[in-house]
Amino acid sequence: MTFVSLTRLRIRSFRFVPPFALHTWRSIRQIKRATGFQTGAVLADRSFAFWTMTAWDSEDSMRTFMASGAHKIAMTHLLEWCDEASVAHWAQTENRIPSWMEADRLMRDTGRPSKVRYPSPRHATLNFSAPRTSASVKITRHLIRDT
After folding, report:
1. Nearest of 4, 3, 141, 9 to residue 75 by alpha carbon
2. How far apart are CA 2 and CA 43, in angstroms?
3. Domain ranges in the chain?
4. 97-127: buried (b, 16+ CB within 10 Å) or exposed (e) per residue?
5. What is the pLDDT of residue 145?
6. Rounded Cα gap, residues 17 and 133, in angstroms
7. What kind of architecture, by CATH, is found in domain 2-139?
8. What is residue 143's predicted lDDT score, i.e. its pLDDT?
9. Which helix (H) or strand (E) holds 61?
10. DSSP three-state, residue 15
11. Across the 147 residues of the chain, what is the mean pLDDT of every consecutive 10-residue run?
């Protein structure tokens, strides 16, 4: 069984994009070494919206990653930086992540909004545009060398 985690975050102002990008890079470095991580992808959507989708050996593996290291530090800023945030999780038999269009459908059907301090009018209803899927980057398990 594979556990999949999907997030969508919309950064409310361009001034938060550079520090968000730095925290994203650090979190990706962390995830490549995380126990239980199988595969994943990130998507830079339009209007400062960003998606992540990761596949794990178990929910416990994902939660251990989420609550530690660079990712834990990044999460402390999201209340302030985001005006839209949502998350969806599910278990599946396939050892893969779905397409972004399928992920969009799953987010709308089974996702929930996350807490933000400055919610947009669309935040609570998950009423956002379908993702622009051309800016996707795969996250692979191979390790990167520290220099």
Report:
1. 9
2. 21
3. 2-139
4. bbebeebbebbeeebebbebeebeeebeebe
5. 41
6. 19
7. 2-Layer Sandwich (3.30)
8. 43
9. helix 59-66
10. helix
11. 96 96 94 94 94 96 94 93 97 92 96 96 93 87 47
